[in-house]
Amino acid sequence: MKAVGVVVEYNPFHNGHFYHISQSKSNSNADVVIAVMSGHFLQRGEPALLDKWHRTKMALNNGVDIVIELPYVFCTGYATAFAEGAIQLLEAIGCTHFAFGSEEGSIQPFLNTFHILKKHEEQYNALIKHYVTTGISYPQSLYKAYEELRQMDVNSTIDLSQPNNILGYHYIEAAKRLNLQIEPMTIPRIKAGFHDDIDNNSTIASATGIRKAIFEQQTLQEIKQFLPPASFTLLKNWQSEYGSFIHWETLWPYLRFAILRNTPEQLSRFADVSEGIEFALIKAAKKSDSFNQFMNQIKSKRYTWTRLQRIVTHIYTGITKDQLHESTKPSYIRLLGMSQNGQAYLSKHKKQFQLPLISRVASTKDPMLLLDIRATDMYALGVEYSSGKQMASDYQTPPIRL
Amino acid sequence: MKAVGVVVEYNPFHNGHFYHISQSKSNSNADVVIAVMSGHFLQRGEPALLDKWHRTKMALNNGVDIVIELPYVFCTGYATAFAEGAIQLLEAIGCTHFAFGSEEGSIQPFLNTFHILKKHEEQYNALIKHYVTTGISYPQSLYKAYEELRQMDVNSTIDLSQPNNILGYHYIEAAKRLNLQIEPMTIPRIKAGFHDDIDNNSTIASATGIRKAIFEQQTLQEIKQFLPPASFTLLKNWQSEYGSFIHWETLWPYLRFAILRNTPEQLSRFADVSEGIEFALIKAAKKSDSFNQFMNQIKSKRYTWTRLQRIVTHIYTGITKDQLHESTKPSYIRLLGMSQNGQAYLSKHKKQFQLPLISRVASTKDPMLLLDIRATDMYALGVEYSSGKQMASDYQTPPIRL
Q1: Residues of A in Cβ contact (< 8 Å) with B317
Q2: Å from B10 to nearest chain A CA?
Q3: What does A200-265 look like in DSSP terms, one character per residue?
Q4: How confident is the prediction for chain A on average, in pLDDT?
Q5: A&B contacts, CB < 8 Å
Q6: Per-residue CA distances from A50 to A237, A245, B287 (Å)
Q7: Low-confidence winner among A212-216, A389-393, B243-247 (lowest mean pLDDT)
Q8: Residue B306: is it exposed, middle or buried by C-beta count within 10 angstroms (0-12/13-18/19+)?
Q9: What is the pLDDT of residues B189-207, one digit of tens each?
Q10: How far is CA B148 from the centre of its chain?
Q11: How does strand B32-38 pair with strand B3-8?
Q12: Could you give the angle at the alpha carbon of B177 between the alpha carbons of B174 and B178, nearest 5°?
């Protein structure tokens, strides 16, 4: 059986994701689709709207055959770490292809970009360094350096101002650098810009737009047209069970508590807290009644909203620098759910997997897995606090079966 | 002007306290009464019903002239540290006498007890050691050792099974050991055993009984007869402002969060967490929806309710072993409030005080004071979380003036 891999957050699962899965499957001629999905905290440093098991059900109900978890160390990391973790897991579970969505839409310009940057590596790094010293943010410096190099080459290259192109490039780069066998493919994203508001004349909206509509509207009806029916039902179920969807405002009282319970020196022990940002965090937390108010006091060119969200994620979960050491290789494949088709694939191939497959978490001492469990516990506390209802934990929850 | 000192928590201020103050003043012929009062966390490891400024107002409205704060390091410590801190502060602010309430009621037996224990110190310590090794708790071992020694002496000694006698003994012991000038007095406690329920045919009830009635009844009317009118009004005001009085159940969601956000190893860094209790704390916190449920899972002969409460106080406030090093001497006198009479005393005598008098907290690096400020912040977070109302902080609040 042939497998194609996808890297996802499904926050929440929408029609665009459905399209991506069917295209990935048909273009790769795969028998099964395997999604490596972030757990409870996402790449832009946000808690997921609903827990990983609900999001796994969304995936399995819409064409994904196997969902595995991207460990906390990768899913809350910068793009390089995120891509490295995800791609290695897809290779480890035997995928022959992986397919990512991009604004670009065809794979050759990605490969050209990789070769150009490789060929001119020294010059590229010198340019980045130059721009950083002028006070421009690191991502912006990367972009400007790239644009200069790009002019010098005749081959078609990708536009790295587009967020999905950037992430796609990191996948390619990680796969090449790590000499993986897995073959990259890209699917053009349809309509819906990344940060767009929802458009009622379409059935496609970005997850960002959908989340915005969820928190701004009192009803889920507004977003119904953008979601497959099973995904919509799961959102409804979550809402009736836990009252509301999870975002930083839900967790703000705890986050504030977690920040103020430290001296600046103690706060600087948490992952990603550096350069004195701890003083600003404490000062702002004292004065803020909401997450939004807090963030607006500290965000800057240097400390972008996303960077700050990653920092507070680690403070919220209580994960220190010592614990989040640079992990470049996953140590396990954590199974979150499978269809019957997915189960057949696992039975047939699991002996060839390059990493142990974990279906149930018993006692573990794997530090990478312990962080996933911690993230679930801390997410659950926030949800329970708002709903008064006990949530499932990693120890109690077997893989979802469809 | 002559001053008598009292050591108090006023949680809340009741008729027994009023009686104690008037007796202390008349028996010592003092012009002013100075109370050294615990801040937001009390000696038995509990958060105060209402904040230190409300409790200061209760005191000033009922005959106390000056309220100063017993620093966090002392007020959450064991009896020895508590007594040492309190007595030294009263000496430092120039009190000629201090008066404590006791079941015993006269001072000579306290002095006799001190001399006997001093005289037979080696034997006493050997007896304690003996009892501890038989598995009896430390306080129980002290008591049994003392009862043995006591039989051997003809002088009248105190009954150390009585809680106020115990605390009184610690004051005497601290004052003697530290060679203080301040002279001890004791006032007999009237009626109301320490842990008694309230009795409707009396106007005296213990603070413990009053707190119990507050949390068990929906109305404050039940306890009105046990409080001076000003004290009752302040309780009413607090209730209408913050909705409820503070106890561990109010703070439980945060305490649980604070416990679960740590590995056992990380948890063991907090003050008083030792001997592997960190594992039991995490295990119980995972399974408990309330503080009561949590405590009942871990309390034992060795880990009494009070000892556990002190442990979780430090976890809640985030104060580590490094921060709560053994402090035996206060470094400042923190003024919480004063009457006009108190103000006159301060103007006249403050140049002779043995420690700096702090009326307003500006920026400070004094580690002892920083812990008091932290304790206020963490207490306030719990109150705000339950009321949605912003509380005063140590930086913003000037001394209360009557």
Answers
A1: 261
A2: 26
A3: TT-S---HHHHHHHHHHSS-SGGGGGGS-HHHHHHHHHHHHHHSS---HHHHHHHHHHHHHTS-HH
A4: 92
A5: 51
A6: 10, 6, 22
A7: A389-393
A8: middle
A9: 876 655 567 777 788 888 9
A10: 29
A11: parallel
A12: 80
The whole-angstrom separation of Cα B368 and Cα B73 is: 7
Q: Do B262 and A318 touch (CB under 8 A)?
A: yes
Q: Do B266 and A378 touch (CB under 8 A)?
A: no
Q: How many CB atoms lie within 10 A of CB A302?
A: 12
Q: What is the pTM of this model?
A: 0.87
Contact B105, B149 (CB under 8 A): no
Nearest to A381 among B257, B263, B317 (CB): B257
A318/B261 Cβ within 8 A: yes
pLDDT in tens, B288-342: 989 999 999 999 988 999 999 999 999 999 999 988 876 789 999 999 999 999 9
Contact B317/A253, CB-based, under 8 Å?
A: no
CA distance A187 to chain B (A): 40
Residues 250-279 of B with CB under 8 A from A: 253-254, 256-258, 260-263, 266
Closest CA to A395 of A238, A374, A367: A374
The contacts of residue A194 (CB under 8 Å, 6+ apart) are A162, A163, A164, A206, A208
Collect all residues of chain A within an 8 Å Cβ-Cβ radius of residue B381. 253, 256-257, 260
CA torsion, ordered B67, B33, B46, A285, to nearest 10 deg:
0
Q: What share of chain A is helix, strand, coil (3-state, %, to 5)?
A: 50, 10, 35
- CA Rg value for chain B: 21
Distance from CA of A282 to the nearest CA of B (A): 11
A385: closest CA of chain B, how far (Å) = 7
CA distance linking residue A177 with residue B351, whole number of Å = 73
Among the partner residues A253, A258, A318, nearest to B385 by beta-carbon distance:
A253
Query: How far A118 CA sits from the closest chain B CA (Å)?
Result: 42
Query: What residues contact A323, with CB distance under 8 A and at least 6 apart?
Result: A271, A367, A371, B263
**B275 Cβ neighbours under 8 A, 6+ residues apart:** none
First-to-last alpha carbon distance for chain A, in angstroms, is 19
Three-state SS letters, B179-245: CCCCEEEEEECCCCCCCCCCCCCCCCCCHHHHHHHHHHCCCCHHHHHHCCHHHHHHHHHHHHHHCCC
Residue B318 and residue A256: Cβ atoms within 8 Å? no
Question: What pairs with residue B185 in β-bridges?
Answer: B99
Q: State whether residue B389 sits within 8 Å of chain A by CB.
A: no
Nearest to A254 among B257, B263, B266 (CB): B257
Contact call for A286 and B317, based on CB within 8 A: no
- Angle separating helix axes A248-260 and A291-298, nearest 10 degrees: 60
Please give the backbone phi and psi of residue A7, each rounded to the nearest 5 degrees, phi first. -110, 120
Query: Which residue is listed with tokens 């921060």?
Result: B323
> Rounded to the nearest 10 degrees, what angle do helices A163-177 and A107-119 cross at?
60
Per-position b or e across B83-108, b if 16+ CB within 10 A of its CB: bbbbbbbbbbbbbbbbbbbbbbeebe
Residues A271/A320, Cβ–Cβ less than 8 Å: yes
Categorize the per-residue pLDDT at A316 as very low, low, confident or very high, splitting at 50, 70 and 90: very high
Compute the distance between CA of residue A12 and CA of residue A9 in angstroms, rounded to an integer.
8
What is the spatial distance between Cα B145 and Cα A40, in angstroms, rounded to a whole number?
56
